[in-house]
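Changelog-adjacent note: as of this version, every example in the card shows the full chain rather than a window. The one below runs 366 residues end to end.
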Amino acid sequence: MRTKKFLKITLLVVVAALFIWTFVFLYQKSQPKVAVYETIVPEVTDLEKTTVATGKVEPRDEVLIKPQISGIIAEVYKEAGQNVKQGEVLAKVKVIPELGQLNSAESRVRLAEISAAQAETDFTRTQKLYKDKLISAEEYEKGDVTVKQAREELQTAKDNLEIVKEGITKSSASFSSTLIRSTITGLILDVPIKVGNSVIMSNTFNDGTTIATIANMNDLIFRGNIDETEVGRVHEGMPVKLTIGALQNLSFNAVLEYISPKGVEENGANQFEIKAAIAAPDSVQIRSGYSANAEIVLDRAQKTLALPESSIEFSGDSTFVYVLTDSVPTQLFDRRPVEVGMSNGIKIAIKSGITAKDKIRGSEKK
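Full-length structure tokens:
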């Protein structure tokens, strides 16, 4: 009997303990939890809002050297990567005469030879008659002019035949169109032709075959694109900080000098082309086509009070912060309106409403 009574008492004690624990647990759960926040002191700093445009570095002007005569490449004197001066010979073109033109030129020479021979014979007679005073000085002068014209026609016919066959005459070898010369001083970027390639002359109806691409590598620009949401905030003359992927430890200054008036849609967004003149030291070799990023400062605030943007409460057109007024026994904060300025996406400038000594509510401590 005593054992049963002891078990009953033990069971009642356990039930009572469980009941009391449950009551205490539910009471504690029902009590509001006191939040504890980290505090932030505003700092005086410089803020910049930037945008980044992607693009490439390239020479301001790339000159395509074209032949002034059609034919076959006989010699190539230069290769990509070499520096050339204006007037230097890049290649030589061998003319392949067209059969009809060749026959016509040869026929013209034969006719000119016949005419010249007849003129020489006639003039010899005229000279004898003039010496014998059988003709007037006027007739002698006419004969002299005729023979000179015949000689000139023969020389012209021979020169024309040389041009058809060789693309050059002996008398104008230094101005030969068969020698392809550089029109500028610069660096050869590309020589797309080889010995034996056929080339076509540049004219009104044909662009012609490119013999070489030459550029002045001392005059480089950045060419890239900027989104339409930011194009209205940039203007010509703005400074640009340029970083090149292949030269990771170096950055260069540039100046924005062109913004396209017309956008182009790319991947569903309107992009506007921009160009910036690069100021690079001579000690750094920059190659045409390097990928680059251009960082443009859209807005700047110097020596301004700043807070993390996450500590700002935005309510309509108004902005507020919570300033610590007491920390014992619990933290108390005063909701205070502030005037904000520019933001760089992480920190935001505070124009008025707080001082550098105020402690601002930050994120809740875990």
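Structural remarks: Residues 52-59+217-300 form a domain with the Elongation Factor Tu (Ef-tu); domain 3 fold (CATH 2.40.30.170).
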